Amino acid sequence: MADAAPSAPVIILNAPQLAENIGAVARVMANFGLADLRLVNPRDGWPQERAWALASGAEWPLNAARVFDTVAEAIADLQLVFATTARPRELTLPVLTPRAAASELLQAAQRGERIGLLFGGERAGLETSDIALCQGIVTIPIDPRFRSLNLGQAVAINAYEWRATLLDAAPPNFRPGPGPATGEALLGLYEHLERELETAGFFHPPEKTPNMIQNLRSALGKARFTDQEVRTLRGVITALSRGRGKVLEKIARKKGEAGG
Amino acid sequence: MADAAPSAPVIILNAPQLAENIGAVARVMANFGLADLRLVNPRDGWPQERAWALASGAEWPLNAARVFDTVAEAIADLQLVFATTARPRELTLPVLTPRAAASELLQAAQRGERIGLLFGGERAGLETSDIALCQGIVTIPIDPRFRSLNLGQAVAINAYEWRATLLDAAPPNFRPGPGPATGEALLGLYEHLERELETAGFFHPPEKTPNMIQNLRSALGKARFTDQEVRTLRGVITALSRGRGKVLEKIARKKGEAGG
């Protein structure tokens, strides 16, 4: 099916210990559009209620999860699998960042291949013999001073990279916002402001006026105001300078009352 | 200090509910080389033992965590802050992927700026008024069919992108010139403007005031004003609203002469 979306990677957890982590993995899979979860020898058996409790409603990866005895069986139908591990191995497999891995996985999926990501359990990680069944190693760029990455987080980062790559790293498709105002609209704003500042006696000494104007314009220009923002700011200038009228009247009245 | 490594982003959690999530955030911060954690109104107070229990030994971000009453206070010393939120807002702030955000944050840090990432609490997320204090929005490319992303995962993905970007980064490219003003200086500017606008009767109808304020703040915030520009703009506000003494006196005198 040439037009179908490429199939997302299968997530394989080898010897996961905590049902809570399996639930967290299901949740993050749902966050990033993944659905196929496979468990190799979960320590406490399967199913486990606490996984559902921790999935925050992302039940479908759990409901459909399949259990296997070995990694080999769990990946038997897959054509490209990367093993996620923090440690470099003696194997000659390529070592990829999550980003590069997502890119290779996507290319494979676009060719119609079935793809997967293999994760080790909380304590033991992955055996070299299991890694050797994979086509590459994904290493998350952890700070070597604190390597203890939670299983759910490791899946999250790879699932995120999958989806970010799938979306072609473009920002999420929001309705396009209003573009910046034209130079003409900006100049109207600047000149309005400068007229009012001139009236208010802001520009002095006079020989510095051109510089002051340039600095104001370039400061405001950095904001790349929209047309609506330009209108709002012109309202602000009008309000402030009319407000001055009110203040002035009050002052004048007071001075008048004081017999000035 | 030209040779120092760029400072990692501060992580600000607004109204976090579960101590477990705060612990998970600390752990993932340690995984990716972040250390400065700030809490705005943690629901159950602070410190909480369960945060330490869930941090798997990543205690230093928790030990050094600081608590604030408002987002404004928590970001007062920062110069570039992105708010992480899944929903597009009415604000005109730029919307960035985590990758693009990490790149902008790194460039700012390489210029010596203090940077941060703001996250909302588990239930409520972020108020628009808090987002309006930031310079951009980071949106994780979540599957719209399952948007419920765990707080720890949201921090993990952004922290991972920070470190991946840092490790990929070319040597810092120092740009001369003053950096942007702090959140505190910006807030001072905003509040000065809003006081004068209030006096001038700009905000009406009253129920729209919060929205008008948010829109003004986010419009101006895009400019990333320097300290000097903030001072200039405060002079502009003062001039527009009060005029300079001489002008006032002149006008007052005229009004007096006119029999006002």
Task: Give the SSE layout.
The structure is a homodimer of 260-residue chains.
Chain A: E1 10-14, H1 19-31, E2 37-40, H2 49-54, H3 60-63, E3 66-68, H4 71-74, E4 80-84, E5 95-96, H5 98-110, E6 115-119, H6 128-131, E7 136-138, H7 151-166, H8 183-199, H9 209-221, H10 227-257
Parallel strand pairs in A: 1-2, 1-6, 2-3, 4-6, 4-7, 5-7
Structural summary, described in words:
Chains A, B: Pfam families: SpoU_methylase. Chains A, B: This is RNA methyltransferase. Chains A, B: InterPro entries: Alpha/beta_knot_MTases, RNA_MeTrfase_TrmJ/LasT, SpoU_MeTrfase, tRNA_m1G_MTases_N. The structure is a homodimer of 260-residue chains. By secondary structure, chain A is an alpha/beta fold. Chain A has helices at 19-31, 49-54, 60-63, 71-74, 98-110, 128-131, 151-166, 183-199, 209-221, 227-257, and strands at residues 10-14, 37-40, 66-68, 80-84, 95-96, 115-119, 136-138. Chain A has a seven-stranded parallel β-sheet with strand order 3-2-1-6-4-7-5. Residues 169-174 of chain A have low confidence and may be disordered. The interface between A and B is large, with 80 and 75 residues.
